[in-house]
Design brief:
heterodimer, A: alpha+beta, 2 domains, eleven-stranded antiparallel beta sheet, 8 helices, globular, B: 4 helices, 35% helix
């Protein structure tokens, strides 16, 4: 159950950069307003030091920190925490709306593997997703690291994990006409970079997955391998190129898309928690 | 002698010296290399699997570029009773150490080390689990 789709609508169709976060020490949900004020002061101080990105007109950065009660997998998960940075230009203060310049949210969807083994004072929210300028990500990250003694690391996604994602997501049942299933490969050892994009009709991809998957709701490595081998074989038949020797860098389906640099876009509300569960698992394995 | 796959071309059979050790190289970044090795294994005479075959997995330094599951390679080693070595060719130190290991194995397989034969590798393969 995803809860109110309106409240999670802002998560969809945005490119989120992924990080893994170690557990936060002495994070108190009751103090979110305080944290917002402290973070705001920190950012203002950083800007004084000249580390900010904006030049020219003096701009106030407003910080909002909120709790997203429904964004979790089970009762054992902590509810997601959303941080938003907005900009209000002092010049036209009368009825100008705040412009959202950066968002970041911490979440845990079925992250029991991590939260089970962690002492009382720690809050487990292993997945961190950001959208907006890197300079703000860096400031927010620094403040959280200093305040809660946690550690952020970019979450890369290996070709092995991208294969799982494309197999899972291509098999999802979708009501409306879906967009193509696309895999992007980077060819190795060439002087000029060369990418190959392999697009498959979504119904064909789903039909293939349905013949491969034995138990609905369960996916095995063997099934993912067979699915991928079929795609590779088909491509080789037509183009005499072994995609299995190239590096899979990006997968794209109607449900979500993911890039090996750790950037995802979730396109469909119905599968939001499913995607987040997979990403939480990746974040946890990077932490452990 | 290097070959991209097996079987070796039959035209050169009578020029070819005795083969003492076959090292199958698998690049962890290339699913194709695993499939290629699996297909080539079918062309190897059963007698080689008494210690004269080994699997060398390369590229293990880059965890994020993994296209192959390490379990799959370990299972291959178990199925064919042959050791699996992991290395990172991009690091000179590891490259040198790996070459030395392979050379040592080759010496044993070629019968240059008295008292030790290729069959020793097979008995070393047995896990403590089996006991």
């Amino acid at each position: 159950e995803n809860g109110d789709p309106q409240r999670t609508a802002f998560l969809l169709r945005k490119a989120w950069t992924l990080y893994s976060v170690t557990p936060l020490y002495r994070f108190h949900r009751a103090r979110l307003r305080d944290y917002a004020r402290l973070l705001s002061a920190f950012i203002a101080a950083e800007k004084q030091k000249g580390l900010a990105v904006e030049v020219g007109v003096e701009l106030d950065i407003k910080v909002a920190v909120s709790s997203l009660a429904d964004l979790r997998g089970s009762e054992q998960d902590q509810a997601a925490v959303l941080v938003q940075l907005s900009m209000r230009s002092r010049a036209s203060s009368r009825n100008s709306e705040d412009k959202l310049v950066w968002s970041g949210w911490f979440c845990s969807v079925y992250g029991d593997d991590l939260s089970e083994n962690v002492p009382e004072d720690f809050t487990c929210l292993p997945l961190f997703l950001t959208h907006g300028a890197e300079s703000y990500t860096s400031m927010v990250g620094s403040w959280f690291q200093k305040t809660f003694d946690c550690c952020f690391r970019r979450l890369a996604i290996s070709p092995l994990n991208l294969c799982w994602m494309v197999a899972m997501w291509a098999g999802c049942q979708l009501d409306r006409a879906a967009s193509a299933v696309e895999l992007v490969f980077s060819m190795p050892r060439l002087s000029q970079p060369l990418d190959i994009s392999y697009a498959i009709h979504p119904e064909d991809a789903k039909a293939l997955w349905d013949t491969v998957q034995k138990t609905p709701g369960e996916i095995t490595q063997e099934e993912v391998d067979v699915f991928m081998d079929c795609l590779y074989a088909h491509f080789h038949r037509h183009f005499k190129i072994h995609l299995s020797a190239a590096k899979l860098v990006k997968v794209s389906t109607a449900v979500a898309s993911a890039h090996c640099d750790g950037i995802v876009k979730i396109l469909h509300n119905q599968y939001l928690l499913g995607v987040l569960m997979l990403l939480t698992e990746l974040a946890i394995s990077q932490i452990q | 002698h290097l070959a991209t796959s097996l079987p070796l071309p039959s035209e050169r059979d009578h020029f070819r010296p005795r083969i003492d050790l076959i090292v199958f190289m698998i690049d962890i970044k290339s699913k194709y290399s695993l499939r290629n090795v699996e297909a080539s294994l079918a062309h190897v005479d059963a007698s080689f699997f008494l210690g004269k075959v080994c699997f060398l997995v390369t590229g293990v330094g880059r965890v994020n570029a993994c296209s192959i599951e390490t379990n799959a390679v370990c299972k291959l080693g178990e199925t064919y009773c042959s050791p699996v070595l992991f290395c990172e060719l991009e690091l000179e130190g590891i490259r040198v150490v790996t070459a030395q290991r392979l050379l040592r194995m080759l010496q044993i397989c070629a019968g240059h080390i008295p008292g030790v034969s290729a069959l020793s590798f097979v008995s070393l393969m047995r896990n403590s689990d089996d006991d």
